[in-house]
Write a structure and sequence with these properties.
The structure holds two protein chains of two kinds. Chain A is of the alpha+beta class. Chain A has helices spanning about 15-45, 65-95, 200-205, 220-230, 270-275, 295-310, and strands at about 100-105, 110-115, 120, 125-130, 135-140, 145-150, 155, 165, 175-180, 190-195, 255, 265. Chain A has six helices and twelve strands. Chain B is built from 18 helices and no strands. Classes of the chains: A alpha+beta, B mainly alpha. At the A-B interface, helix 1, helix 2, strand 7 and strand 9 of A face helix 3, helix 6, helix 9, helix 10 and helix 11 of B.
């Protein structure tokens, strides 16, 4: 159910979101009306010097039962809303394992997206209907916020760390994409549209190179390999651990141990940190020898994609389609 | 108690007419008047900025100003209204004037510190005005990093130092109130006989002295990062941008209560006087102010549900936010029930107080959408939030401020304003306010982000913006009108009797209007309970009867 002038419901979250939203609206309207009627009634009945004198004997100045009952009643309704809202939030924060992954980079004042087959787009995002989509997001400069009102989803895009959000589009169409965190001069124009396409349309769009109709887009991992070779990462990070540096083969997702005794699973944030500020986390048994590199966020994501493939066969075909 | 003031005695306004007698005064009442003048000036500046924003938004592409100018206008509106009006207005003007009088003291505990607080306020204010005129600030009143610390041009440093300095003015006032309330109560003025106005300011002062140092440090750290490139918040320098939000909101959420608790304190006084009744659930209302003060320090994360803090943190802060809603909600019921078996007198302060009840209810209830972590996701950062906090801050604090101004005007200056105009104007404030901010709930729910200069990509938003600007125009008129009739009353208004509202409380019953320099002759002794009204007797008296006859 949706009201005629309400925002469109175009994702898996929208219907449940609106149900809770309307419930709180009902509670708000009823409470406001109650206060209004209560005040109006008391004013009319006890207006100074009006009509016949009301009975004002034995005025009531406190009533513990009313205080406790109204506090308890209000709190119970509040806690019901809290539990439902928290449950919904947990859903929103935990993407399903089979979600399609897209990388998003925010910068003043545009959005940039990288699909897994190398298709890139600016200020637009194409997604398939019926498929969970997970966005891995980072900002090149200040804090932005990725907001699609018709999907009822929003999350901030922060410099220095990856954030993620997910949704499943449920209805083909063109929806607003806004930056919802003030980011400077052209903040209001940092946006565009999200296009939800039927799966076969999406597959065709992606296979034919997206908006630019590139005949053979370069795979992010291949772009990452190019960087890896250009910067000669392999001269220290060989296939096996050596004295100078640990191997990066099979690194992704593996537990790492550091000289300060701490441990961490090698994920996107770890690899990004190790590129930009390698001295922060030195693997146990090694010395700090690597210099920091200043890659762009796009390059870092490509390098991560390449490192993920190390130790596994490199895909040779352009991956396409929604599946 | 009766008024025992000889009519030929000088009141505090007549104690010296030189500029130095004002600028070097240690009289809490004169300092309150200094604050009244300067706070009104800053309110005017903030309102001009607001009108610029509203006029610009009538068109989806803007017509009057550039992106930069627009960003500076809404930033100036936010900074001036929050730091130089809302936080300061009621405590520094009415708290300053009334707390010593309500507890039976001659002055605040530290009169020199009180004067110093006004100089700090002015110094901070002038710094911000210079910042505004010499390039402006475009980072919003929240100064989020790394935009404020690295990316933004303009006079951020000067503005931050201004906000830092004005913070000390609040701390001085807070320390002064706490010491005064603890140590300077007249004989017989026990804690449970304190007017709720005093209780509210006591709770506010606790928040001020615990919270303000944190934001002062935070703003200073931004200055360090901006000027000396010391990496604290910017990831490029090795800092954490979200850390700023934690530190900023650790103060700035409690600051919401710094702004609204004094408003609630005013409403308690007005509801009691114009219902001729004790405030319903006096103890509950007093303790709930302290409860709100305590809880307000563990809800800050609800500003950061989608900021990348952990989802479990989000759920924790959502839970605590629902808890803090309860005492506020119950206060509304208590104020309403104060009219039960009372004698409701619809004078202009009472109309403002009733307006407060309505608007604060909507403001509080719409907080539930934002406290619930799931429903916050879609509306955070949109006009829904803008509407919500304006209902609380303007509907709450501004209406309470106007109510206080009308209630205590004769106490301050000994003159009456035209009551008929004042009543109709109070109604216009209420209507103009609702017309301004109700459409903003809708447009926020439709997805309009706040701080947007253009919205040509969603032209369906325009109708709501036009409605909002019409409302803001009505609101502007309703704020100009009192400026005129109150100023007029200072010179031509009829002289007020010492207690025109027949109100209870030491400030009305034991002091003249305007009060003498030392407030009272001798030390008043308190024997009765607070809000010792008798609605039944007053109603009977109106009909020429006594209780015995009836």
């Amino acid at each position: 159910m949706n009201f005629p002038f309400a925002p469109e419901q175009a994702s898996n979250f929208a219907v449940e979101y609106d149900t809770l939203f309307y419930l709180i609206t009902g509670f708000t309207v009823l409470t406001t009306l109650f206060v209004f009627v209560l005040c109006l009634g008391l004013i009319i009945k006890y207006k100074r010097g009006s009509g016949k004198p009301e009975d004002r004997r034995n005025p009531m100045h406190h009533n513990t039962i009313i205080e406790i009952a109204s506090s308890g009643g209000f709190l119970s309704i509040g806690l019901f809303i809290f539990v439902w809202g928290a449950k919904m939030f947990l859903d929103m924060r935990q993407p399903p394992a089979n979600a399609m992954e897209i990388n998003v980079i925010g910068k003043r004042w545009m959005w940039h997206a990288q699909h897994d087959n190398g298709v890139r787009e600016n200020n637009e995002l194409h997604v398939p209907v019926g498929v969970p989509v997970k966005l891995t997001m980072i900002s090149q400069d200040v804090i932005h916020s990725f907001y699609v009102p018709q999907f009822r989803v929003q999350f901030m895009v922060v410099p220095g760390r990856y954030t993620q959000m997910w949704f499943t589009p449920t209805k083909a169409g063109k929806y607003n994409l806004f930056c919802a965190m003030h980011c400077g001069t052209q903040h209001s124009e940092m946006g565009g549209y999200v296009y939800a396409l039927e799966p076969k349309d999406f597959a065709k769009w992606k296979e034919t190179g997206g908006n630019r109709f590139q005949p053979k887009p370069e795979l992010p991992a291949a772009a990452g390999k190019q960087l890896y070779d250009d910067f000669m990462c392999g001269s220290c990070h060989t296939e096996k651990d050596n004295q100078r540096a640990p191997s990066l083969y099979g690194l992704y997702g593996r537990q790492r141990q550091f000289t300060d005794g701490s441990t961490m699973v090698a994920d996107n944030d770890y690899i990004r940190q190790s590129l930009l500020a390698p001295e922060g986390k030195i693997n146990k048994g090694y010395e700090s020898m690597m210099q920091p590199y200043s890659f762009t966020e796009e390059q870092i994501l490509e390098l991560i994609e390449y490192i993920k493939t190390l130790g596994t066969p490199i895909p040779t075909q352009v991956a396409g389609g929604a599946q | 108690m009766t008024t025992h003031v000889a009519t030929d005695e000088k009141n505090y306004l007549q104690e010296g007419h030189t500029l130095a007698s004002w600028l070097l005064t240690k009289d809490h009442k004169r300092i309150a008047v200094l604050y009244l003048i300067s706070v009104s000036f800053f309110f005017f500046v903030g309102s001009i900025a607001a009108m610029m924003v509203r006029l610009e938004l009538t068109s989806p592409r803007g017509t009057l100003m550039s992106n930069e100018t627009y960003n500076k206008a809404f930033s100036a509106h936010g900074v001036v209204m929050v730091f130089f009006f809302l936080v300061v207005a009621i405590p520094a003007i009415f708290g300053n004037f009334l707390i010593p009088m309500q507890i039976g003291a001659r002055d605040l505990a530290f009169p020199r510190l009180n004067l110093l607080s006004w100089y700090f306020y002015m110094a901070g204010g002038i710094m911000f005005l210079i910042a505004m005129m010499s390039g402006g600030v475009d980072a919003g009143w929240t100064f989020y990093t790394p935009m404020s610390s690295i990316y933004s041009n303009g006079q951020i440093t000067l503005a931050l130092v201004g906000a830092f300095v004005v913070g000390f003015s609040s701390i001085f006032t807070g320390v002064n109130f706490i010491a005064t309330i603890h140590k300077m109560r007249a004989p017989g003025m026990t804690w449970w006989r304190l007017p709720l106005f005093v209780w509210g300011h006591y709770a506010t002062s606790l928040i001020v002295i615990l919270g303000t140092p944190v934001v002062a440090i935070t703003l200073l750290l931004v200055v360090f990062e901006r000027v000396a490139k010391i990496g604290i918040f910017s990831p490029e320098l090795g800092g954490d941008p979200v850390l700023f939000q934690h530190m900023f909101w650790f103060y700035s959420h409690p600051a919401v209560y710094i702004m609204v608790l004094p408003g609630m304190a005013v409403i308690s006084e007005i509801m009691a006087c114009f219902s001729r009744n004790k405030v319903f659930g006096y103890h509950f209302v007093a303790l709930s102010s302290l409860g709100i003060a305590a809880l307000s320090f563990i809800v800050w994360g609800h500003h950061m549900f989608v900021s990348s803090q952990s989802m479990y943190q989000g759920i924790f802060f959502s839970f605590t936010s629902f808890l803090v809603a309860v005492p506020s909600a119950i206060k509304v019921f208590n104020w309403s029930l104060t009219m039960y078996k009372g004698s409701v007198w619809l004078a202009s302060p009472m109309i403002y107080a009733l307006g407060f009840l309505g608007l604060f209810t909507v403001g509080g209830m719409t907080g539930l959408y934002l406290a619930s972590v799931g429903t916050d996701v879609h509306v955070t950062g949109t006009y829904f939030v803008v509407a919500h906090f304006h209902y609380v801050m303007v509907g709450g604090t501004l209406l309470a401020f106007l109510g206080a101004l009308h209630f205590w005007w004769p106490k301050f200056f000994g003159r009456m304003y035209p009551e008929g105009v004042a009543k109709w104007n109070a109604l216009l404030v209420f209507i103009g306010f609702n017309l301004t901010f109700l459409p903003q709930f809708v447009v926020g729910w439709l997805g309009m982000p706040r701080r947007y200069h253009y919205y040509y990509f969603a032209p369906e938003f325009q109708v709501y913006h036009v409605m909002s600007t019409l409302g803001a125009s009505a609101l502007a008129v309703s704020l100009i009108v009192p400026a005129f009739y109150l100023t007029y009353s200072l010179f031509k208004g009829p002289k007020s009797p010492p207690n025109p509202w027949a109100a209870r409380g030491l400030e009305w019953e034991a002091a003249a209007s305007p009060p003498i320099k030392h407030n009272f002759h001798g030390v008043p002794v308190v024997v009765g309970d607070v809000y010792d009204y008798d609605a039944e007797a007053e109603e009977l008296a109106l009909r020429g009867m006594t209780k015995e006859e009836a």
